[in-house]
Design goal:
This is DUF1801 domain-containing protein. Helices cover 35% and strands 22% of the residues.
């Protein structure tokens, strides 16, 4: 199996965010960064060239190969900010009805910015999702 592109690196999260997100999107990324770090008591790290992730879990593929992957995180992409791990929230369906301008596709949440998104609901979703993931993968959490 080829070496994965998405693995934890030592690259600077802040340097990446300054380059990848401008204006309101940068502010949204700072909100997400703080919320993910507080929810997991973990310092965010870069995973590959474009994902800001917290914690780690070991994924096992159908062929038996295993890879570490962040338990949660986000990536400011060209069209949207993509959030990972949100479906782990035990209140996911209820919170999605209240969150505002956010969509779920393929297990990922997509927002354009925080405009039109209820930030308290988003913070609750991140917090409850990460609490569920940290409980599931406690030995992989790296303390600040």
């Amino acid at each position: 199996m080829p070496e994965p592109k998405t693995k934890k690196t030592t690259a600077s999260v802040q340097a990446f965010l300054k380059k990848a997100a401008k204006g309101d999107r940068y502010d949204a990324c700072q909100f997400l960064l703080e919320t993910f770090e507080q929810a997991t008591n973990d310092k965010a790290a870069m995973w590959g060239p474009a994902i800001v992730g917290v914690g780690a879990e070991t994924m096992t593929y159908a062929n038996g190969d295993q890879r570490d992957w962040p338990i949660g995180g986000f990536s400011p992409r060209a069209q949207n900010i993509v959030l990972y791990g949100m479906q782990a929230s035990p209140r996911h369906a209820t919170l999605m009805k209240k969150i505002g301008k956010a969509t779920m596709r393929g297990g990922c949440m997509y927002i354009k910015s925080l405009e039109g998104v209820d930030q308290q609901v988003l913070a609750e979703m991140i917090t409850t999702a990460m609490a569920a993931k940290v409980q599931r993968y406690p030995s992989k959490a790296r303390k600040k």
